[in-house]
Amino acid sequence: MSERLLVLVRHGQSDWNLKNLFTGWKDPDLTALGVEEAKAAGHRLKARALSFDRCFTSDLTRAQRTLDLILAALGQTALPIARDQALNERDYGELSGLNKDDARARWGEEQVHVWRRSYDVPPPGGESLKDTAARVLPYYIRTILPAVMRGERTLVAAHGNSLRALLMVLDGLDADTIPGVELATGVPLVYRLKADTTVDAKEILTA
After folding, report:
1. Cβ of 198: how many Cβ atoms within 10 Å?
2. What is its EC number (predicted)?
3. From 2.30.110.10, 3.40.50.10540, 3.40.50.1820, 3.40.50.1240, which CATH number describes the 5-14+30-91+129-204 domain?
């Protein structure tokens, strides 16, 4: 049986990350630093002799470009790629496009903190992490996980909150612990799964 390999990567720094804006489903591109982060992720995977059979990403440019740059660094630009809104970043609703400091000035530090870090309280017109998980996890179970369990080495390039939803399953995190988890941009998380779909080993490929 081939190895059951699943690698998750949060996209490189985007222009709106740099400007401290709530991004959500808005579609800014990577910064120059974000491009370098994505390339570096590819080089770190290549240094570990990791290669892939198929890839998944979101419907947003910053994740798609991160994936393209990683695959270019790996020399695997011809791989099949599935792009789906199910892997999009959490929708921040009325906060989208706002500077985080301006949002705090408008609604107060405590309220903005609740919207950003609670599990089940959405911002106005947007999604909570619970809402995000409700679309990410069925897609994972229906589409991504079966590929991994078939022995197809799988790479997922997505977003901080869509990947945090996956970490709840993979790392056994709950609604109390997941709000405190941060994912660095452009850092691959390498999982190897057991036959029962639970995690056999995890490695974080930091610089």
Report:
1. 10
2. 5.4.2.11
3. 3.40.50.1240
